[in-house]
Amino acid sequence: MWTLLLALLAHFFKGREPRHERTLLAIKPDGVQRRLMGDIVKRFEGKGLKLVAMKFLKPPVALLQQHYIDLKDKAFYSSLVQFMNSGPVLAMVWEGNGVVRTCRRMLGETDPADSAPGTIRGDFCIDIGRNVIHGSDSEESAQKEISLWFQPEELVTWYSNTEAWVYE
Protein backbone atom coordinates (compact mmCIF):
# COMPACT_ATOMS: atom_id res chain seq x y z
CA MET A 1 0.00 0.00 0.00
CA TRP A 2 2.77 2.45 0.93
CA THR A 3 4.57 1.64 -2.30
CA LEU A 4 1.47 2.52 -4.30
CA LEU A 5 0.98 5.76 -2.36
CA LEU A 6 4.61 6.77 -2.88
CA ALA A 7 4.36 5.92 -6.58
CA LEU A 8 1.23 8.09 -6.90
CA LEU A 9 2.91 11.00 -5.10
CA ALA A 10 6.01 10.61 -7.28
CA HIS A 11 3.74 10.71 -10.34
CA PHE A 12 2.00 13.88 -9.11
CA PHE A 13 5.30 15.66 -8.54
CA LYS A 14 7.36 14.21 -11.42
CA GLY A 15 8.94 17.12 -13.25
CA ARG A 16 6.99 19.58 -11.13
CA GLU A 17 8.95 21.58 -8.70
CA PRO A 18 6.44 24.04 -7.37
CA ARG A 19 7.74 27.56 -7.16
CA HIS A 20 6.99 28.51 -3.59
CA GLU A 21 6.87 32.25 -3.82
CA ARG A 22 6.07 34.15 -0.62
CA THR A 23 4.23 37.39 0.05
CA LEU A 24 3.52 39.63 3.01
CA LEU A 25 -0.06 40.45 3.92
CA ALA A 26 -0.91 42.69 6.85
CA ILE A 27 -4.39 43.28 8.20
CA LYS A 28 -4.37 46.94 9.12
CA PRO A 29 -5.70 48.47 12.36
CA ASP A 30 -9.13 49.08 10.80
CA GLY A 31 -9.43 45.42 9.79
CA VAL A 32 -8.37 44.32 13.28
CA GLN A 33 -10.80 46.72 15.00
CA ARG A 34 -13.63 45.54 12.77
CA ARG A 35 -12.76 41.94 13.67
CA LEU A 36 -12.23 40.83 10.08
CA MET A 37 -9.09 38.80 10.74
CA GLY A 38 -10.74 35.38 10.73
CA ASP A 39 -12.80 36.08 7.60
CA ILE A 40 -9.72 37.33 5.75
CA VAL A 41 -7.43 34.46 6.80
CA LYS A 42 -10.15 31.98 5.83
CA ARG A 43 -10.19 33.34 2.26
CA PHE A 44 -6.48 32.70 1.75
CA GLU A 45 -6.64 29.25 3.34
CA GLY A 46 -9.69 28.39 1.25
CA LYS A 47 -7.82 29.42 -1.89
CA GLY A 48 -5.18 26.81 -1.09
CA LEU A 49 -2.36 29.11 -0.04
CA LYS A 50 -0.09 28.12 2.83
CA LEU A 51 0.49 30.26 5.91
CA VAL A 52 4.16 30.19 6.92
CA ALA A 53 4.32 33.02 9.49
CA MET A 54 1.98 35.19 11.50
CA LYS A 55 2.36 37.76 14.25
CA PHE A 56 0.02 40.17 15.98
CA LEU A 57 1.74 43.41 16.94
CA LYS A 58 1.53 47.15 17.24
CA PRO A 59 4.24 47.98 14.71
CA PRO A 60 6.87 50.52 15.75
CA VAL A 61 7.03 53.78 13.79
CA ALA A 62 10.56 52.98 12.58
CA LEU A 63 9.35 49.71 11.01
CA LEU A 64 6.44 51.48 9.32
CA GLN A 65 8.66 54.29 8.02
CA GLN A 66 10.96 51.72 6.46
CA HIS A 67 8.06 49.66 5.13
CA TYR A 68 6.51 52.66 3.38
CA ILE A 69 9.83 54.31 2.40
CA ASP A 70 8.82 54.33 -1.30
CA LEU A 71 5.91 56.62 -0.40
CA LYS A 72 7.93 59.09 1.70
CA ASP A 73 7.48 61.91 -0.81
CA LYS A 74 3.70 61.51 -0.94
CA ALA A 75 1.49 63.95 0.97
CA PHE A 76 -0.23 61.07 2.81
CA TYR A 77 2.99 59.35 4.03
CA SER A 78 2.95 60.74 7.60
CA SER A 79 -0.75 60.08 8.10
CA LEU A 80 -0.35 56.54 6.72
CA VAL A 81 2.48 55.77 9.16
CA GLN A 82 0.47 57.31 12.01
CA PHE A 83 -2.63 55.29 11.09
CA MET A 84 -0.69 52.02 10.84
CA ASN A 85 0.80 52.75 14.28
CA SER A 86 -2.62 53.52 15.79
CA GLY A 87 -3.42 49.91 16.74
CA PRO A 88 -2.48 46.30 16.29
CA VAL A 89 -1.73 44.74 12.90
CA LEU A 90 -1.84 41.07 11.92
CA ALA A 91 1.25 40.49 9.77
CA MET A 92 1.38 37.25 7.78
CA VAL A 93 3.53 35.49 5.21
CA TRP A 94 1.72 33.29 2.73
CA GLU A 95 3.30 30.84 0.30
CA GLY A 96 2.22 29.34 -3.00
CA ASN A 97 2.71 29.38 -6.73
CA GLY A 98 2.09 32.89 -8.02
CA VAL A 99 1.08 34.00 -4.54
CA VAL A 100 1.85 37.71 -5.01
CA ARG A 101 -0.39 38.00 -8.06
CA THR A 102 -3.08 35.77 -6.55
CA CYS A 103 -3.22 37.74 -3.30
CA ARG A 104 -3.29 41.09 -5.09
CA ARG A 105 -6.30 39.94 -7.09
CA MET A 106 -8.01 38.67 -3.92
CA LEU A 107 -7.39 42.02 -2.18
CA GLY A 108 -8.95 44.12 -4.93
CA GLU A 109 -7.89 47.60 -5.94
CA THR A 110 -6.22 49.95 -3.44
CA ASP A 111 -9.28 52.18 -3.73
CA PRO A 112 -12.24 50.08 -2.57
CA ALA A 113 -14.54 52.05 -4.89
CA ASP A 114 -12.69 50.41 -7.80
CA SER A 115 -12.73 46.91 -6.24
CA ALA A 116 -14.99 44.19 -7.55
CA PRO A 117 -17.46 42.42 -5.28
CA GLY A 118 -15.90 39.20 -4.05
CA THR A 119 -12.56 40.84 -3.32
CA ILE A 120 -11.62 41.68 0.26
CA ARG A 121 -11.73 45.43 -0.36
CA GLY A 122 -14.82 45.13 -2.55
CA ASP A 123 -16.66 43.29 0.22
CA PHE A 124 -15.37 45.00 3.37
CA CYS A 125 -14.26 48.55 2.47
CA ILE A 126 -15.61 51.91 1.36
CA ASP A 127 -12.79 54.44 1.84
CA ILE A 128 -9.24 54.28 0.43
CA GLY A 129 -7.83 55.39 3.78
CA ARG A 130 -9.49 52.41 5.48
CA ASN A 131 -8.86 49.56 3.05
CA VAL A 132 -8.20 46.94 5.80
CA ILE A 133 -5.23 45.07 4.30
CA HIS A 134 -1.78 45.53 2.80
CA GLY A 135 -0.31 43.12 0.27
CA SER A 136 3.11 43.12 -1.38
CA ASP A 137 2.89 44.36 -4.96
CA SER A 138 5.78 42.35 -6.46
CA GLU A 139 8.10 39.48 -5.62
CA GLU A 140 10.89 41.97 -4.94
CA SER A 141 8.84 44.06 -2.53
CA ALA A 142 7.55 40.88 -0.90
CA GLN A 143 11.10 39.74 -0.11
CA LYS A 144 11.99 43.17 1.25
CA GLU A 145 8.81 43.45 3.34
CA ILE A 146 9.05 39.93 4.73
CA SER A 147 12.61 40.61 5.89
CA LEU A 148 11.43 43.83 7.60
CA TRP A 149 8.56 42.19 9.50
CA PHE A 150 9.97 38.70 10.20
CA GLN A 151 13.26 37.13 11.23
CA PRO A 152 14.28 34.09 9.11
CA GLU A 153 13.66 31.72 12.04
CA GLU A 154 10.04 32.94 12.28
CA LEU A 155 9.25 31.58 8.80
CA VAL A 156 8.10 27.98 9.03
CA THR A 157 8.90 25.69 6.12
CA TRP A 158 6.46 22.79 6.06
CA TYR A 159 4.78 20.43 3.63
CA SER A 160 1.01 20.45 3.33
CA ASN A 161 -0.60 17.12 2.49
CA THR A 162 -3.09 19.00 0.33
CA GLU A 163 -0.52 20.39 -2.13
CA ALA A 164 -1.20 17.58 -4.60
CA TRP A 165 -4.86 18.60 -4.52
CA VAL A 166 -4.11 22.31 -5.03
CA TYR A 167 -1.39 22.16 -7.70
CA GLU A 168 -1.44 20.08 -10.85
UniProtKB/TrEMBL annotation:
UniProt keyword Membrane present: no
Protein name per its UniProtKB record: Nucleoside diphosphate kinase
The keyword Nucleotide-binding belongs to this UniProt entry's keyword annotation: yes
Active site: H134
EC number assigned by the record: 2.7.4.6
Lineage: Eukaryota, Metazoa, Chordata, Craniata, Vertebrata
Family assignment from sequence similarity: Belongs to the NDK family.
Keywords of the record: ATP-binding, Kinase, Nucleotide-binding, Signal, Transferase
Catalytic activity: a 2'-deoxyribonucleoside 5'-diphosphate + ATP = a 2'-deoxyribonucleoside 5'-triphosphate + ADP; a ribonucleoside 5'-diphosphate + ATP = a ribonucleoside 5'-triphosphate + ADP
UniProt cross-references to Pfam families, sorted A to Z: NDK
Residue ranges occupied by any Nucleoside diphosphate kinase-like domain in the UniProt entry: 20-157
